[in-house]
Amino acid sequence: MDLVLVQIFNGIQYGFLIFLAASGLTLVFGILGVINLAHGSFYMLGAYLALTLTQLTGDVFLAVAIGIPLAVAFGAAIEWAFVRHLYARDHLQQVLLTFALILIFNEVQRIGWGSHPHSVLAPSYLSGSIRLTDTLTYPVYRLALTAICATLAAAMFLVIQKTRVGRLIRAGESNREMTELLGFDSRWLYRFVFAAGTALAALAGMLAAPVESVYPGIGERVLIISFVVVVIGGIGSIKGAFLGALVIGVADALGKVFLPSLAGVVVYALMAAVLVVRPGGLFGRVIR
Amino acid sequence: MSSTRREFLSTALAAGAFTLAAPSLRNVRAAGPLKVGLLLPASGTFAPLGEAITRAAKLYVASKGGSLAGRPVTFVSLDDESAPPKATELTNKLVFGENVDVLMGTVHSGVAAAMVKIAREAGVTTLVPNAGADAITRAMCAPNIFRTSFANGQIGAATAKAMLAAGVKEAMTCTWRYAAGEEMVGGFKETFEAGGGKVTKDIALPFPDVEFQSALAEIAAAKPQAVYSFFAGGGAAKFIKDYAAAGLSGAVPLWGPGFLTDGVEQAVGAAGNGIRTVLHYADGLDNPENKAFSATFKAAHGIDPDVYAVQGWDAMQVLDIGLAAVSGDTAKKDAMHAAMAAAKFASPRGPFEFSASRNPKQNFYARELKDGKNRMTGIAAASFADSGKGCRA
């Protein structure tokens, strides 16, 4: 019984982390209509930013504070240089360009940081562990991470439900053309959304850096699981991404223990099941 | 791009070597340059391994004045990208396009399997400087295929011996569900259980999943006497850190093949202290060959050599012995291969010779990770050969 509780807790904790990465993807996909394969690269960028900035500042949270504006600027620049040319084009061209970005970012990463795995230290005030069972302890940083992710999720709900920007985002998501007809300059909205999506992925990478080790290709796994979350939750829905991430996290943790031979497919089987019952995802509409 | 520049450089280098070596060549009949094709990863996760092997191989040739048995050596490098689907095409390019005399590769077992399949049909002299897939020197073995590294099952078995010797009677295993992981665990289990040990559970995670919390919770709940685990690269670094953070490193000792800790020492820091591994090499191994090799390597590249460099260096030693036996005349393939199979020399890793399936019979060292170094604590298995099960050639 202990084991089940611990695993559910593990699952929730993992779910919060993938929510952070997936929320950016669902925004970009839902509002811009762009399939951004390079989303995982932004996660990787965040992890390596955390590595370098933590070495410079000595604290991963300082690194996050400096890293977020950098990630926003980077996202806006990528949008301006590449992504804005994709809005009117079909998905195949989007996939082609964003896949090319993955290759470029991977090579830049290799030139800049090399291929060996690196490690980011959790700040000393969060480096202890809490005893869960008589043999298992839980690192405090992981608990703090869960709290931070939960706070961020709540903040995102507030922004999207209660603010003007949030209303615009929701409007853009439900009907792009109509929003433009009402006189909103969607160029700036799009750039903002893409930059925010980039920053969310990078933030997830930065916060995860002390519990992960930082290594080449770190973002690819995140990209795949994020797409699964977005599909389960419904494209463009933050609420869906949140629930989807938690469901995936718990299913993954329990699957590994109770269905070990099927652990690799539990998550995808779940996705298939959701798609059969609700083709648009938990909170999505059927895709136009 | 970079591979063309590399080709240009190696050609230029070889041309230089040729001019230097020219006087001594007049007496040798087969005086044309010897072409060595390197199929190694130059990009991706395995790039540093490919680089270490390439550097050591070129260093060996340079230390012999740029030629082996009187034949100047040229290298042709292709980046295999550790991508099995590309392996066949790239191998064909080297063997039939470039007409290399010697083929050397690679790191990734999947790529190596495809490469060996072509090599054994073509009969080209082939050196495998890393890939541990058991089949290469078991079912797929051939008189022209020489491995200078290890077989996965061989390391697993040697680790089992070390654990039994340390008094471990029951253990859980934890790895990724993919070929290398299964072979590392398979070899371990066979020897561990034959020696009276008991494996209570095998945890196999989907490759390359690095979310280890569920596995750790399971280990903590079962509290076995020890855990035998194999991961590599970023996954290994994360597993070691998570294992320590879960409070397990004190309660349940962590063991594994040396690849669990090699290359991630800096990344894991203090979390890695006390992990015991078994490998055919250890940092600062105390023998004259290792001292000489380490000094040469460090002088050339500014870093200490690792196990991959040693494997690349020894591949060239084996080739050198084969070439010397036929005075550089690679047309006498059978005689050359026989001399290579009989090669016996002092390697930086200790005494080196081949078992019947042309996989190294070598010492396996018990090592403990402490402060970023894998120091030898004893010999886990002396002059230990792989079973070579199913090798008929």
Description:
The complex is a heterodimer of chains A (288) and B (393). Chain A has eleven helices and two strands. Chain A has 288 residues and is mainly α. Chain A has one domain: ABC transporter involved in vitamin B12 uptake, BtuC (Orthogonal Bundle). The termini of chain A are far apart. Chain A has a two-stranded antiparallel ribbon. Chain A is 73% helix and 2% strand. Chain B has two domains: 2-150 and 285-358, Response regulator (Rossmann fold, 3-Layer(aba) Sandwich); 153-279 and 365-384, Rossmann fold, CATH 3.40.50. Helices cover 44% and strands 23% of the residues of chain B. Chain B contains 13 helices and 15 strands. In chain B, strand 4, helix 4 and strand 5 form a beta-alpha-beta unit. The radius of gyration of chain B is 21 Å and the shape is globular. The two termini of chain B are 41 Å apart. The model of chain B is unreliable at 15-29 (pLDDT under 50).
Provide a quick synopsis of the model.
The complex is a heterodimer of chains A (288) and B (393). With 288 residues, chain A is mainly α.
Strand portion of chain A? under 5%
Average pLDDT score of chain B: 90
Q: What kind of oligomer do you see?
A: heterodimer
Q: What is the CATH topology descriptor of the largest domain in chain B?
A: Rossmann fold
Largest sheet of chain A: 2 strands, antiparallel
Strands, helices and their partners?
The complex is a heterodimer of chains A (288) and B (393).
Chain A: H1 2-32, H2 39-57, H3 60-81, H4 91-113, E1 129-131, E2 137-139, H5 140-162, H6 164-174, H7 176-181, H8 186-208, H9 218-233, H10 238-258, H11 263-277
Chain B: H1 2-25, E1 34-40, H2 47-63, E2 67-68, E3 71-79, H3 84-97, E4 102-105, H4 109-122, E5 125-128, E6 145-147, H5 152-165, E7 170-176, H6 179-194, E8 198-205, H7 213-222, E9 226-230, H8 233-245, H9 248-251, E10 254-257, H10 265-268, E11 276-279, H11 288-301, H12 307-325, H13 333-341, E12 344-347, E13 350-354, E14 360-370, E15 373-384
Parallel strand pairs in B: 1-3, 1-4, 4-5, 5-6, 7-8, 7-9, 9-10, 10-11
Antiparallel strand pairs in B: 2-3, 11-14, 12-13, 13-14, 14-15
Helix pairs in contact in B: 2-12, 3-4, 5-6, 12-13
